[in-house]
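Entry 12.
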Amino acid sequence: MNGRALSSIFNDFVQEAEGSFPALRGRFLIVDVPRNTVYGVHRLEDGKTGVERTGLPAYLGANSTMARLRRADTASTVAFQDPRGLNIIFFNEKMAPELADSVSEAAEERLVRMMRHELGHLGIPGGYYDAEETPQQVLGECIADAYALLRHYQLHGTEKLPADKYVSAFARASSLVMYGDTSHYTLPVLEAINNCRNAIDYAAQDEERMADLAFNLAFRHVPSMGLLAGLKETFMPVRGLWGHDKTAAVKKLAEITLDAKASPEVFQAGAAWLRPFAAGTLSFKGEIPEFAKAERAELAQELERRRHHFDRLRKTDAPRARPAEWRKLGLMG
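Predicted 3D structure (tokens):
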């Protein structure tokens, strides 16, 4: 069966975005950068954004985000919010013409999840940020991931956990553990949602409630900047090995994760990567870590044992106050 054209998917998504977030009506666009096509132009309302429809080509031609994406082949899709009120998703995924004309159902599901991540940045207060390596960025990424994952469960059910980088606990853990990316470490939020996903009455959640739920779960579980810096330092030995000796890197990761002195946060990050590895569900390009089947089984048992240990501790822990840095954002008293 042939899939849908990319253009149809984008046109439908413009309507979804405006329906989910009425504040975006008349001020939302999707720009397909590789194919130089803009969606939602006919829905723009002059006077709402400070960018008239007739001036849109000149505006996009001078837009610095647009220029950056055109220069960088590997740059990913990004949300952009103009101070004058125009909201744009710059889509920058490379696709062969035949794939763009017929997007498979599975590919469309992944693509729309990615778009909902960007929509979370634009539509939910606190989701958008304009400075990197800041508490605002970490919170914004947590909100966007939370929204994309919750909407996925609302529309597709909770039986299967999606695996793409925007809503995958493994992918977000891998970015930090193996590459030192703290700005997109949304793992605590994603795992909190996965743990309660079957307790949510999705049918009762309208668009506004779903956005509120995403914000509240993100805000409750967002990691502090201090924690992120500590995790980055803790896993530094793993990153030092990963590029040239993957077997040694995985063994070092297991050693750090299962250390009796490891904090719950260190265990959470390391275990999110190690569990699928122990289960044999990961695929690697190039060098493959050499672990015997018995070693993987033993690793899985140790991870489960430590999980039970931290679960018991968590039941007796008192609720912790939010870090002062979030109070400074004006989002809580």
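Annotation: The beta strands are 28-32, 37-39, 78-81, 87-91. The chain has two domains: 1-107, 124-327.
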